[in-house]
Design goal:
The chain is of the alpha+beta class. Helix content is 24%, strand content 40%. The longest helix has 38 residues. The radius of gyration is 26 Å and the shape is elongated.
């Protein structure tokens, strides 16, 4: 005849197993909540303004685009540049993500950095700078972004 464990031992084991699983989940949730809180605090101090864009022709129809980025927040930020073009046959889906990330510190002279993008086509519609992940402690801040339309870029629109 087979004998099982007593109901009392089974209940104690079930409670112990439940407490172990609850402890693991609580640790994960606590760590996740702390990282989200740190990111929120960091991003509250993130402010950026894309002040000016100047396009100069180098080899038609392409040129260089100089962007003046003003960091008026209290934290350092990295940005990727997204270029949107009107001629979707020349540019896949009309969008190009510039392959260089620009760092804009809040300690730069006058909090301003100049980003130079080479080989930018003259059918540029708008430029967007968007905060990206960088070395710790740095977070992606969705609110830290700005854009310029082609009419605001000297050499293209005015």
């Amino acid at each position: 005849m087979l004998k099982g464990i007593s109901p009392l031992v089974a209940v104690i084991m079930l409670i112990a197993f439940t407490l172990i699983i609850a402890g693991i989940i609580a640790g994960f949730v606590t760590q996740f909540a702390q990282s989200q809180q740190e990111a929120t605090k960091y991003c509250l101090d993130a402010r950026v303004l894309l002040q000016r864009g100047i396009w100069t022709e180098t080899t038609p129809p392409n040129g260089n685009l100089s962007l003046t980025i003003y960091n008026y927040g209290k934290v350092d930020l990295n940005f990727e540049v997204i270029l949107r073009y009107s001629n979707i046959t020349r540019h896949i889906k009309g969008i190009e993500i510039y392959n260089q990330t620009f760092n804009v510190t809040h300690r730069s002279p006058n909090n301003v950095e100049i980003a130079l993008l080479e080989d930018v086509s003259d059918d540029l519609q708008d430029v967007t700078i968007k905060s990206t992940m960088c070395d710790l402690p740095c977070y992606e801040c969705p609110a830290a972004q700005d854009f310029l339309r082609y009419v605001e870029i000297k050499g293209l629109g005015y």
